[in-house]
């Protein structure tokens, strides 16, 4: 019997194909690898601004009064992660070695993002750290994710949200919840090397709407779509091109 593995598609899949996206496989997902070339996209977003679909990233919501215990088990004895702040690090076990980003949305709620291909092992690993009254939900398929990256990313964001994203208020490794184009959204500031970058997480029902809203808002800003390969190359070089 032939084994059949379903392919996961972002809410933006067909819109991005129409923009000439070249799809690559990451785990079970299809995601834009590039539109022109990764090299051209890196040069452009290093000077201007770009938006990218990162919906395939594993996204886990954790709620409960004992989330502090989970943070200690994952990150060790770091100073407390305050509300509105973000940590990143590696989670290593005999079964798993992956990069994770943790945003503290409130005193009892976390959003964890990971690039692991094996969501089930990550879920099982984190579940082993949970205490009573802490609940973990996989929201990977429920949430769309768009990254806004480049020197003019804050200017673009200011056109679609009233959140105060100035460096003095919203520095790198910050998070907040608010509205973008009237859509409830979680925003992370997670720079790529020296490049300012915002990560947006919101209901997949509004994927195309928010993409179009950002595109319209950036119509006079040399805004381009870029693929995951450009981000991978930027991360490996420390964001300096």
> What's the main sheet like?
6 strands, mixed
The name CATH uses for the topology of the largest domain is Gyrase A, domain 2
| Fourth CATH level, the homologous superfamily of the largest domain | Probable tRNA modification gtpase trme, domain 1
How helix-rich are the residues, as a percent range? 10-25%
Write the topology of this structure.
Layout: E1 8-9, H1 13-18, E2 22-26, E3 29-34, H2 38-47, E4 49-53, E5 58-64, H3 67-75, E6 86-93, E7 96-106, E8 109-114, H4 119-127, E9 134-138, E10 143-149, H5 153-158, E11 174-180, E12 183-189, E13 197-203, H6 207-217, E14 223-225, H7 228-236
Parallel strand pairs: 1-3, 4-14
Antiparallel strand pairs: 2-3, 4-10, 5-8, 5-9, 6-7, 7-8, 10-13, 11-12, 12-13
Helix pairs in contact: 2-7
Can you give me a brief rundown of this structure?
With 241 residues, the chain is α+β, with helices and mostly antiparallel strands. The chain has 7 helices and 14 strands.
Describe this structure in words.
The protein has 241 residues and is α+β, with helices and mostly antiparallel strands. The chain folds into two domains: 10-57 and 141-236, Probable tRNA modification gtpase trme, domain 1 (Gyrase A, domain 2, 2-Layer Sandwich), CATH 3.30.1360.120; 58-138, Aminomethyltransferase beta-barrel domains (Alpha-Beta Plaits, 2-Layer Sandwich). Helix content is 25%, strand content 36%. The strands form three sheets. A six-stranded mixed sheet has the order 11-12-13-10-4-14, with helices on both faces. A five-stranded antiparallel sheet has the order 6-7-8-5-9. It has a three-stranded mixed sheet with strand order 1-3-2. Helix 2 (38-47) packs across helix 7. The longest helix has 11 residues, at 207-217. The chain is globular, with a radius of gyration of 18 Å. The model has no long low-confidence stretch (mean pLDDT 91).
């Amino acid at each position: 019997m032939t084994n059949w593995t379903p392919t996961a598609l972002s809410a933006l899949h067909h819109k991005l194909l129409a923009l000439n996206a070249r799809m690559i496989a990451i785990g079970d997902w299809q995601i834009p690898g590039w539109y022109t070339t990764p090299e051209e996209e890196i040069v452009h977003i290093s000077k201007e601004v770009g938006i990218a679909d990162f919906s395939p990233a594993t996204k886990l919501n954790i709620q409960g009064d004992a989330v502090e215990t989970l943070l200690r088990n994952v990150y060790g004895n770091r100073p407390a992660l305050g509300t509105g702040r973000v940590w990143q690090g590696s989670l290593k076990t005999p079964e798993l070695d992956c990069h994770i980003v943790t945003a503290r949305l409130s005193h009892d709620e976390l959003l964890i993002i990971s690039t692991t291909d094996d969501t089930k092992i990550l879920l099982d690993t984190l579940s082993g750290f949970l205490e009573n009254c802490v609940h973990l939900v996989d929201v990977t398929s429920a949430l769309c994710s768009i990254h806004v990256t480049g020197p003019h990313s804050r200017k673009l964001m200011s056109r679609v949200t009233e959140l105060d994203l100035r460096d003095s208020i919203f520095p790198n490794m910050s998070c907040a919840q608010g509205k973008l184009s009237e859509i409830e959204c979680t925003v992370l500031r997670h720079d790529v090397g020296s490049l300012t970058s915002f990560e947006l997480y919101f209901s997949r029902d509004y994927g195309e709407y928010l993409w179009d809203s950002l595109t319209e808002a950036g119509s006079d800003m040399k805004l381009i779509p870029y693929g995951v390969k450009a981000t991978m190359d930027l991360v490996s070089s420390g964001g300096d091109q």
